[in-house]
Specification:
homodimer; alpha/beta; Rossmann fold; 3 domains; 7-stranded parallel sheet; 7 strands; 10% strand; globular
Chain lengths: 371, 371
């Protein structure tokens, strides 16, 4: 009864790994739960009405690695696509300790209190290393998370970066269909996921600490180059002077970068979530940016480019995943790996042999599925 | 007569794109040349004897995009693998202007004059942008390139980064089989190709200028983190003091990185190709590193890991290339791209449909080939 499929499905439904021991009671509960899975139409209608339970459940399906879940998720997505796109998508990044959650809570509360509907999504492929700060989102943003206009969703740390990011991209579509007009995508700013996030947002906000050089903060030049706005956080009390100095420094650094295609000149500002200063400034800059890029066509052009990017990303990921998930291929790979490591064959030889085997297996699978 | 295959083969043989107009004379010459292509055994025997013409020709076959060439190249490679591996592979990187060629010429001449056989390979996927500095290698390193113990080979700028890098990896094998005991792999240090190079060398040398912060030099933190040795170049005349200051700064910066798995403590030194100071120091450091890592097992372990990495890289690249080179799939992609851009379907939908079509086509191709 307790097969692999069940175990991983249970993990997905709970949003965590299943407990090591599974008793009959939980099997019964799971089966009951499974039978209750709504239809694609019920899901879509619920999401469009802004039903939080169905939205959460749909995101869980999107994040699931079960093929049966993936199929339903795909159908829900296709139904939601025509209702998506009507939001401002903002990427927010910064190293741990920069005060991301406090910043998001402060800005977020101001938005939901002026009737914006805000979804906060988080990508953290390295959460195991960084001690799971993101998984604690809901406790970190206590006030925001209990607000009826806010929806906070951490992404699972399992899976490849590409996979996690793609799921965040799909989650954006679901949230937009559910009526969220502002989407925050939060990352930890260590450089792995920022490129992926940059390819799914309209505006990229980089939070920086004053006092420490960007080298010490582990912020790579490439991330600074993507930023539409740099906000120096914690500019309060004794920090104000330091923050102003940092602002001047970063402003100079930004001048060294080539002009942006968007015609927007990236800015540096200081802010304090404690004193609630500069927070509105961030939002005003975002609105100004959106205004500019919508009028000069850059906004629309970028959205189209991003859609293309995700089409190709999904194809590439599917090609690679399909191959490595094939059990028979995995066996062959193990063998070849040994031979390559021992220097018996070149690292370039297995590709051709394995791919021929693989294409044959794929075709046979398709053939039997159709029969 | 003048078909696509011929055009691209001509391009490959000349190492440049073919002229826009092709006359009967060049067709005749090409055909004569083609008939002269040696057998795999002749190639292998020639390479093992250190025949430069056959080595160069074999590398050209490795770099060729023609399937018929790829097949011969593959066979030559498999024959050469058992004779490869007996060299020190050194990655050398630094931004344009840091003095890479002068440094390589100076160190290279010292090596070949003490009876080392040196191959200098260059990866430059962005050579079109950086005005082809690498294509001028032979003129840049005039004295070294005319030395009988030196072999200098720039890589073509065409193709994806993965493809170019893989070919460099294959070229290393051919050069080692031809008796080269020291291999330099040179890159331009802008961050795209350094990871690929790091995965094929034993030692990673980063050249830096004094006076400019690493931010201004465009050197990313990740590249600094890979360096086993940083050499501050042009430490001569008025520059000496500045170079010493930079040395202190970079030494401090290196202390911030976590300890390396190799147990080697990355160092910073100053050198001058003009005054020929510090050059021997670089080489001594390399030898010390090789000694340490060979005795603690890290050298061997890394080589094995790298072989695995290239096995997987080759598979991934083949999966992706196969798909995008399929003419029929390209047609479908164009159509889907339009629909995705217009928001008619989600970016996630085409993957499944296209992959099914593709696997079917692949199998049919295999089937007819076998008949």
């Amino acid at each position: 009864m307790v097969d692999e499929e069940f175990k991983s499905a249970l993990g997905v439904l709970n949003g965590v790994m299943p407990p090591p021991l599974i008793n009959e009671e939980s099997v019964r509960k799971y089966k009951a739960k499974r039978k209750q899975l709504p239809s694609v139409d019920e899901f879509t209608a619920g999401i469009l009405k802004g039903d939080l339970t169905l939205l959460s459940q749909a995101i869980t399906l999107v994040e699931s690695s079960l093929p049966s879940h993936a199929e339903i998720a795909q159908q829900i997505l296709e139904h939601c696509v025509p209702f998506s796109g009507n939001s401002i998508r903002i990427g927010i990044t910064g190293v741990p300790g920069v005060g991301k959650s406090t910043f998001i809570e402060t800005l977020g509360l101001r938005l939901v209190n002026s009737n914006h509907k805000l979804a906060v999504l988080a990508i953290d492929p390295s959460s195991e290393r960084s001690k799971g700060s993101i998984m604690g989102d809901k406790t970190r943003m206590e006030e925001l998370s209990s607000h009826p206009y806010a929806f906070i969703r951490p992404s699972p740390s399992a899976g490849s970066l590409g996979g996690v990011a793609r799921k965040t991209r799909e989650t954006i579509i679901l949230c937009e269909a559910a009526g969220y007009d502002t989407i925050f995508v939060e990352t930890v700013g260590v450089g792995q996921s920022e490129v992926a996030v940059h390819s799914m947002v309209d505006f990229f906000l980089l939070l920086m600490l004053s006092g420490a050089g960007d080298e010490l903060q582990g912020i790579k030049r490439g991330i600074m180059e993507m930023a539409d706005l740099i906000a120096i956080t914690k500019a309060d009390g004794e920090n104000i002077e330091k923050a102003e100095r940092a602002k001047a420094e970063y402003t100079n650094a930004l001048h060294l970068f080539p002009p942006t295609e968007s015609q927007w000149i990236p800015k540096v500002i200081t802010c304090s979530a404690k004193n609630i200063t500069g927070i509105d400034d961030v939002w005003d800059n975002i609105l100004e940016y959106i205004g500019l890029t919508k009028s000069n066509g850059y906004f629309d052009k970028t959205r189209k480019k991003q859609a293309c990017y995700w089409m190709y990303e999904t194809i590439n990921q599917s090609l690679i995943d399909g191959f490595y998930h094939d059990k028979r291929i995995q066996k062959f790979l193990e063998n070849f790996e040994k031979k390559v490591v021992d220097g018996e064959i070149s690292p370039f030889k297995p590709a051709k042999i394995l791919l021929e085997k693989y294409y044959k297996r794929r075709y046979i699978k398709l053939y039997y599925k159709r029969k």
